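Quick one, tokens below:
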């Protein structure tokens, strides 16, 4: 959704923003630096500098949904902390127009000795609500969190899930102008995850300004019209999300030759455990690979000859819209080779009145070239954004070929001789 932002002040304006951390090798060095900070006392520098952000300029207008991508240590979280005011810049300036709700370290400001109700009131006041507004919304916040039975108990008695759900409920129900999300679109499990995701989508559709930081390039491209790419504290690219995601993915592919990526996908070929009938949620119940009429999780197939059939079963709360299915095919190093999804193909999944469904994905005469590939299956919401369940590396494809072609795919092609006409 796009909005006419002409005539509006920026929701967020960042000018020449830099953040430097002082890293000390030993605790005693911090004391030395404090005691001898001045040159005329023969001081020296007992720390090394780490510039988490360096000279960042960024303007975000009201109603924009902006994604932030970058590797760990690129400065993403530091930028969000500076915008939220939980950290101060070394140089530069941050201007924010509007009330911010930040889904960063949920519950970080809770006092464990206070009750849930007291922490809700305190957190809402810190976020800018007056006493009348807090009184109007506190019951809504408690109902959304689902911890009403424990709301008057000290939060130190809460489970980690209850703690996070209450903190999320406060952040999402203070009617912010700007929503800042670090890594997670939803919190908790099951029905609460779905409910929290739905609330965030409602805020996006209502024209709230959203700053979304995530390693999920799929979610960034799906949710955000604009994205920025940070690397080692510098802004590499700022533009349309598809353009930025494509450039960043190419960068990752060039630097993906590391054992960690391979380990991530190893050892996950396990049966999907039986789960109870979902309430407010959905889950996969079966993923079965059939290669050349043989049911096996480890298939030996011939390039351009073998047929693959993937049977998928799921269960869902029938009160929810029908979910979607996606498949990704990965190389051993973790690169996504290709993907397909029911919503992209406009395929309408049929499900039973109890919310269960069965479907299959056919891949005929698979044109993969030699190598080992991994199959992932995902169950997502009706928008194809919120992830209900996944089966990663559920099947392995070992592809052999007769020729010496290189790469991942053999694409359709045709050779022709051109007739050369000689002029006299």
């Amino acid at each position: 959704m796009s909005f006419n932002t002409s005539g509006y002040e920026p929701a967020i304006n960042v000018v020449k923003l830099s953040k430097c951390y002082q890293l000390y090798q030993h605790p005693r060095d911090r004391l030395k630096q404090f005691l001898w900070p001045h040159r005329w006392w023969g001081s020296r520098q007992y720390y090394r500098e780490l510039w988490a952000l360096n000279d960042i300029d960024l303007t975000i207008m009201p109603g924009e949904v902006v994604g932030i991508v970058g590797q760990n240590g690129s400065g993403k979280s530091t930028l969000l902390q500076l915008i939220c005011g939980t950290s101060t810049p070394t140089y530069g300036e941050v201007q924010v127009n509007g009330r911010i709700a930040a889904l960063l370290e949920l519950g970080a400001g809770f006092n464990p000795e206070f009750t849930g109700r007291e922490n809700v009131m305190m957190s809402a006041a810190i976020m800018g609500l007056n006493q009348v507004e807090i009184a109007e919304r506190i019951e809504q916040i408690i109902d959304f969190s689902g911890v009403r039975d424990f709301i008057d108990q000290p939060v130190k008695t809460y489970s980690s899930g209850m703690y996070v759900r209450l903190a999320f409920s406060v952040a999402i129900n203070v009617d912010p102008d700007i929503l800042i999300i670090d890594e997670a679109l939803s919190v908790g499990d099951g029905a609460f995850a779905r409910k929290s995701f739905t609330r965030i989508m409602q805020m996006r559709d209502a024209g709230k300004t959203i700053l979304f930081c995530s390693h999920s390039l799929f979610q960034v491209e799906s949710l955000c019209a604009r994205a920025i790419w940070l690397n080692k504290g510098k802004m590499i690219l700022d533009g349309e999300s598809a353009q930025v995601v494509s450039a960043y993915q190419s960068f990752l592919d060039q630097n993906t030759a590391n054992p960690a990526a391979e380990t991530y996908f190893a050892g996950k070929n396990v049966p999907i455990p039986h789960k109870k009938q979902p309430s407010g949620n959905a889950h996969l119940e079966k993923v079965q690979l059939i290669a050349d009429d043989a049911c096996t999780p480890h298939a030996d197939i011939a390039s351009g000859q073998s047929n693959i059939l993937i049977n998928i079963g799921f269960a869902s709360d029938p009160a929810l819209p029908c979910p979607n299915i996606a498949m990704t095919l990965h190389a051993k190093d973790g690169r996504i080779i290709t993907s397909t999804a029911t919503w992209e193909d406009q395929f309408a999944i049929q499900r039973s009145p109890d919310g269960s469904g069965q479907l299959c994905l056919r891949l005929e005469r698979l044109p993969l070239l030699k190598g080992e590939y991994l199959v992932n299956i995902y169950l997502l919401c009706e928008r194809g954004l919120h992830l209900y369940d996944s089966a990663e590396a559920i099947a392995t494809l070992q592809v052999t070929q007769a020729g010496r072609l290189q790469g991942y795919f053999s694409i359709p092609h045709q050779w022709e001789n051109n007739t050369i006409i000689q002029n006299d």
